[in-house]
Amino acid sequence: MPLLAVVSVIVSCAIHALWNFLVKRAENKLAFTALFLIAVPFLFLPMIVLLSPKLVLPPAGWICIVATGIVYAAYFVALAQAYLVSDLSFAYPLSCGLGPALTVIWGMALLGERPSALGFLGIASVLAGVFVLQWQPNLASRLGSFFASSALPAWLVGLMYSVYSVIDKVAVGHVGVHSAVYIYAAYTVCAVIVLPIALIRCGKETLFKEWRRNWSSCVATSVLNIIAYLLVLWAMSLPNTPVSYIVPLRTLSVLFGVLFGTEVSGESGRWRKLGAAALLMLGVSLIAVA
User: CB 3.0–4.6 Å: which of 211, 222, 227, 256 could bond 39 by disulfide?
Assistant: First the structure.
């Protein structure tokens, strides 16, 4: 695998964890999320204008875009709630680890895919990582923590990740929608849905207050969000760059998320969370290879 592709994916992982850190740091997570989502269509409009003369979207493509936009909205609302009730170093690796494992299950149920024994071993490793991440001193607390109120939003984020990953595969892989246009349009649909939710829950004044306080972080999060995605696409486009190498490499974002939480934000449980991150990375890598 070319060194340039490796560096590109690693930078993408760091950027992905960084924009999640910026959401976690915001005073009102939902208001901040709505604001950075609204900024995406405006910031990346020139790119779409340049691409538009070459694009023709079939009806199935529009269906996938709207479906993904709806799932994205649920994803980002759940993400804001996850960072409201739990640490970055807990919610981020939990959702990032569960997402790929659940995607395998959807692939089996909906697309007829059949993972090997190595794939199932990867799922077991992800579940072990989730268990370590939610570790409590006694058995009753450990079992209860799996579905504690602080963990449920992160579970929902992982679930939504798995759902939109399947729709992504259909849209880009089977329908043939241009990836840049697909992500732009889906984010636009998502922003249209999330903004009214934020207005109802937070109020207009809260959104204005969050913008005045964190407008630069909102814009940065919008840009980082799309750049992280485009870097991976660019790495995949390079010659001699197998997807089976890129997907495991992307799990480094779990490690970056734990480090941002424990080392930058001072969250507790450093070594336990790093151990959980290692299990999650191993599990997702096995799933990708399988």
Answer: 222
Task: Assign 212 a pLDDT band (cuts: 50, 70, 90).
Answer: very high
Question: What confidence category does residue 76 fall into, taking pLDDT thresholds of 50, 70 and 90?
Answer: very high
Q: Containing H/E element for 53? A: none
**For residue 13, which amino acid is it?**
C
DSSP string, 238-281: STT--HHHHHHHHTHHHHHHHHIIIIIS--S-HHHHHHHHHHHH
**CA–centroid distance for 151 within its chain:** 16
**Cα–Cα distance between 58 and 263 in angstroms, integer?**
47
Q: How far apart are CA 89 and CA 160, in angstroms?
A: 19
Residues above pLDDT 70, as percent of the chain: 82
Listed in sequence order, the residues at least 6 apart from 158 whose beta carbon sits closer than 8 Å to its beta carbon are 94, 95, 96, 97, 98, 99, 102
pTM (2 d.p.): 0.84
- Cα separation, 60 vs 171, in Å, equals 8
Tokens of 96: 């990032």
pLDDT tier for residue 139 given thresholds of 50, 70 and 90:
very low
Q: What is the radius of gyration, based on Cα positions, of the chain?
A: 19
- Token readout for 231 is 């870097």
φ, ψ for residue 194, nearest 5 deg: -70, -35
Q: What pLDDT is stored for residue 140 in this prediction?
A: 46
3-class DSSP state for residue 141? helix
Which pLDDT score, from 0 to 100, does residue 47 have? Answer: 81
